[in-house]
Amino acid sequence: MPWKETCVMDQKMQMIGDYLNGEYTITQLSTTYEVSRKTLYKWIRRYTMEGPSGLNERSRAPKSHPDATPLEKAREIVATKLKHQRWGPKKVIAWLEEHQPRERWPAASTAGEILRRAGLVASRRRKRRTPSYTQPFIECDRPNAVWSADFKGQFRTGDGKLCYPLTITDNNSRYLLCCRGLSRPTFEETQPWFDWSFKEYGLPEAIRTDNGAPFASVGLGGLTRLSVWFIKLGIRPERIKPGHPEQNGRHERMHRSLKEATANPPKCDIKEQQRAFDEFIQEHDFVRPHEALGQKTPASLYYPSLRPYPIKVPDVEYAHNAIVRKVRHNGEIKWKGHLIYVSEALAGEPVALKQKEEQLWEIRFSLYPLGVLNELTGRIMPLGNQPGRKLLPMFPIRSVTYVPV
Fold first, then answer.
1. Mapping DSSP to helix (H, G, I), strand (E, B) and coil, where does residue 79 land?
2. Is there a cis peptide before residue 393, judged by omega within 30 degrees of 0?
3. Is residue 198 located within the same domain as residue 294?
4. pLDDT tens, position by position, 180-216
5. Predicted TM-score (pTM) of this structure
6. Strand pairing class (206-209; 146-151)
7. Which of 7, 79, 278, 390 lies 20 to 30 A from 48 at CA?
8. What stretches of 142-265 show up as alpha helix (H) in DSSP?
9. In a domain, 365, yes or no
10. Tens digit of pLDDT for each residue in 14-63?
């Protein structure tokens, strides 16, 4: 005959039936069903009090946990998260420890579980990280050593107008110096906000940007009117490698938080959008703890630069024995009776020439080498080009014909 399937509940009911028939003693039932006498008495007692439902398995978890987070503190953690919905459990606990130092708060992992049970933690897909790329950038070992600047991707506000958020941060402290919604990413709109930042916080040693306008160009030395102005102020322009935003990773991480907080969705117009940017600056700099800063706020670590912004931008000067030429309004210099194109970004500025070899002259602006002038071809070779490599269109290629002056 086929085997019959039985479950634990069926065996319990059969055992209770045998007990109620009175044909077996407790000892005999214990031996037959291979359970202890204590267990038998427990099931009989539950069946007598609750009927068949008393034979269901019950949770073995303790009714109370001495190390469990008190309900009041769990509610405080949830309330803090609701107030700062973009914060994770580490920032929530860091903020509570700072504002209620006498209380004993649980670990961030426990806070994360509390927030998960409350439905306040969104799962994220893990992203594959691009390996970092190193260049001889200035070390970000102190405030104002390096600032980062960029335009967060443009978007349209509710009235249909484009908004280009210009952001400037201090790399060491993560302090957000400026966040301004501009209508266009041009020199004319960008320069006044760097001017404001320099007056407010002083001058950094370097400003790190990507290779887009108005920070860089495809011209000689990658110079633009903005980077020329930086150099005259004694600021070193640093440009990350194209396609490697991780070289400005601290700034990019701030951009992600900025988008989540202010532009998802965008505000109704640029005025309301700027109000959202200003509120984000206050929270980012003065309220929100940063894990990379040991859960401190940027404002607690940042201080203004000791290099003051000069009232008048100084002129570029060279040694008394340097050969200097002034760049004309069309970007050309006069050299040995001929016109050589350099860069329109340097219009009105002096450049110096130093002979390297016969008929080869290195051209510099301030301390920054721009290229090498070949007198035979009348062209300027950008620095870094190697034999066998295709030259990029760093500057307009003119015919070899000289134009007498």
1. helix
2. no
3. yes
4. 999 999 999 999 999 999 999 999 999 999 888 899 8
5. 0.66
6. parallel
7. 7
8. 187-201, 225-232, 249-262
9. yes
10. 888 878 887 778 887 788 878 888 888 888 888 888 888 877 777 776 66
Query: Total structural domains in the chain?
Result: 4
Q: What is the token pair recorded at 4?
A: 């019959």
Q: Is residue 122 part of a domain?
A: no
Taking the alpha carbons at both ends of the chain, their separation in whole angstroms is: 116
Task: Give residue 243's identity as a one-letter amino acid code.
Answer: G
Q: Which of 300, 331, 360 is the last residue of a domain?
A: 300
Q: Give the tens place of pLDDT for each residue, 81-116.
A: 888 888 888 888 888 888 888 888 888 888 888 888
Domain for residue 124, yes or no? no
Domain membership flag for residue 129 = no
Q: Tokens at residue 85, please? A: 């919905």
Domain that holds residue 78: 71-117
* 159 shares its domain with 294: yes
CA atoms of 280 and 192, how far apart (whole Å):
21
**Which phi-psi region, left, alpha or beta, contains residue 83 (left: φ > 0; alpha: ψ -120 to 50)?**
alpha
The answer to whether residues 278 and 334 belong to one domain is no
Segment holding 279, helix H or strand E: helix 270-282
Neighbours of 154 (CB within 10 A): 14
Residues 26 and 90 grouped into a single domain:
no
CB atoms inside a 10 Å sphere around CB 45: 11
The region that residue 229 occupies, defined by phi over 0 for left and psi between -120 and 50 for alpha, beta otherwise, is: alpha
